[in-house]
Amino acid sequence: MRRISIFGATGSIGASTIDLIRRDPEAYRLVALTGGQNIAGLAALAREFRPEIAVTADPARLPELRAALAGTGLACAAGPQALIEAADRPADWIMSAIVGAAGLPPGLRALRHGTTLALANKESLVCAGPLLMETARRHGATILPVDSEHSAVFQALAGEDMASVERVIITASGGAFRDWPLDRLRDATPAEASSHPNWDMGQRITIDSASMFNKALELIETREFFGIDPRRIEAVVHPESIIHAMVAHNDGGILAHLGAPDMRHAIGFALNWPARRALPVERLDFVRLGSLSFRPACETRYPALRLAREVMAAGGLHGAAFNGAKERALDHFIAGRLRFTEMAELVERVLERLQAAAALAGAVTLEEVRRVDQIARDSADDALRLDQAAR
Ligand code: NAD
Ligand code: MG
């Protein structure tokens, strides 16, 4: 039996991971299951899988979790520190599927134990790529990318010599507004941005897909995970989401990874790695597909992509600032305090402010990443307040 933990078990990636585990319950022993605000969902999973511990991120919800697990004999805990302690529990495979920078501390702790970390939480690589990769190297841990594009690159690169790689191309579906005229985007609502044409995902990444902040994070994720020069990393809009990524070599050959848009492929690949096992995903019928199309990922339409280029060029703590500002801008958009197109404007202003204040010059340590994450969020709130006062 393999010992596994799932961080973010109640989310979209968590549910897909659970779906695979549920199909083969004899093969796994659950160590830790964690969630956020969905206490009923977390308790139901805990009752079904009987992990060593169930953890909610919110200390205020602990009594509720305790009550929901009464009589089961299952242990529970709450809060950011409890999440880190859950990552101390020995496990063979850990799914990192918390959304946002909150996924970094437990993921980092898990790597220190030399585990295999299936990384869906792209924000940890964006905020602290060098720290995460170095920690994995030092402790003999393995990070397996779960983001579909990065799983695709990982698979396409298997057995290849990095020195012959000319370009890595990740695809973008274009999200909810790919066919909207540019001048309509300003008035796009959170509800409109929350429906994805191809993928069924959590609300935050779905909105990030519409604004291309998701692809911006993924460009940085590609740079950090594979160590590729940012100038060799491209994004292209591919509305069908059938090709997830391509690796182009110096002899003109290009290896593409194709599959149905179903995260259970990338999750299952990481779960079974280095073996391949049958997975319950749709098989592609090329005749039915007919054709695949591509469009430029335009940096005027999607300023988040231009910002990602600047962040990659600057490196260091810029990723943490970019992600922190992006998370706050998204909070404000969801709450109706910011327009859709103002998210990128706000992030850009935060980056400019922090650069001007020389706040991003330090080394990429957990303490520094936390500090920068916080000042980026504060600075975003501050800039928004100034704007509102001026209106
Ligand atoms: P989701 O919102 O559906 O789920 C997020 C999970 O994190 C939930 O279990 C939630 O309770 C928990 N959580 C939220 N805030 C937390 C906090 N502050 N502390 C601890 N736990 C918290 O999100 P998702 O779509 O499953 O995405 C999870 C991660 O995977 C994200 O980093 C996302 O970018 C990445 N990802 C998702 C998909 C997808 O298809 N959903 C694809 C690629 C990558
Ligand atoms: Mg992706």
TrEMBL record:
Residues binding 1-deoxy-D-xylulose 5-phosphate, per UniProt: 122, 148-149, 173, 196, 209, 214-215, 218
Cofactor: Mg(2+); Mn(2+)
1-deoxy-D-xylulose 5-phosphate reductoisomerase N-terminal domain span: 4-129
Recorded GO MF terms: 1-deoxy-D-xylulose-5-phosphate reductoisomerase activity; manganese ion binding; NADPH binding
Recorded catalytic activity of this chain's protein: 2-C-methyl-D-erythritol 4-phosphate + NADP(+) = 1-deoxy-D-xylulose 5-phosphate + NADPH + H(+)
Pfam family membership, one: DXP_reductoisom
1-deoxy-D-xylulose 5-phosphate reductoisomerase C-terminal domain location: 143-226
Alphabetically ordered keywords of this record: Isoprene biosynthesis, Magnesium, Manganese, Metal-binding, NADP, Oxidoreductase
Residue positions binding NADPH: 10-13, 36, 38, 121, 123, 202
Its EC number(s): 1.1.1.267
Pathway participation: Isoprenoid biosynthesis; isopentenyl diphosphate biosynthesis via DXP pathway; isopentenyl diphosphate from 1-deoxy-D-xylulose 5-phosphate: step 1/6
Enzyme class per UniProt: oxidoreductase
Domain DXP reductoisomerase C-terminal: residue ranges: 258-378
Residues that, per the record, bind Mn(2+): 147, 149, 218
Domain of life per record: Bacteria
A biological process from GO: isopentenyl diphosphate biosynthetic process, methylerythritol 4-phosphate pathway involved in terpenoid biosynthetic process
Annotated family: Belongs to the DXR family.
NCBIfam families cross-referenced by the UniProt entry: Dxr
Described function: Catalyzes the NADPH-dependent rearrangement and reduction of 1-deoxy-D-xylulose-5-phosphate (DXP) to 2-C-methyl-D-erythritol 4-phosphate (MEP).
Protein name (database record): 1-deoxy-D-xylulose 5-phosphate reductoisomerase
